[in-house]
Amino acid sequence: MKYIAFILLAGFGMNQAGGESYVSKNARISLYSKAPLEDIEAVSGKGVSVLNTTTGAVAFTVPIKSFQFDKSLMQEHFNENYMESDKFPNASFKGKIQEKFDVSKEGTYPVRAIGILDVHGVKQSRTIPGTIIVNKNTVRLTSEFTVQCKDHKIEIPRLVFQKIAESIQVKVSTDYTNYQK
């Protein structure tokens, strides 16, 4: 996990002079899909994120195999049949927050990040809404958005379309710590 955080910092230029970087090594990302026959839910607490509060640059990555399901067979099908997690081991987002926010002032800041969402090896330009909450020494980012399976070439066989929805609701919540401290 430290390796992934280092790659995010170095490769994304997050630790630039004059920039203040915040890091999260345990971002919580949940997936929810409502389908006619069965709802599907999964959660990972292994997301890694870096946020530069000066430039607004933000990056996330999550190992696909880290998502946990209530049913082990569902988890197996998710990894092998749909997400092909051996071939595409991570999902990621790299972008820039458009609105200004001040980590020295407590408050709630509605934000939008414009960037590239990479899921299942397919990169897509996205604008993702979120909220930054500054409370004492804590910086929290939350977001909720939808991913269409077809947009990332995730194929759902017609035999199981009653069990799997064509869109997935994604929720992200993470607390950052100041990287320089």
TrEMBL record:
Highest taxon of source: Bacteria
Pfam families membership: YceI (PF04264)
Location of the Lipid/polyisoprenoid-binding YceI-like domain: 51-174
Regions annotated as coiled coil: none
Protein name per Swiss-Prot or TrEMBL: YceI family protein
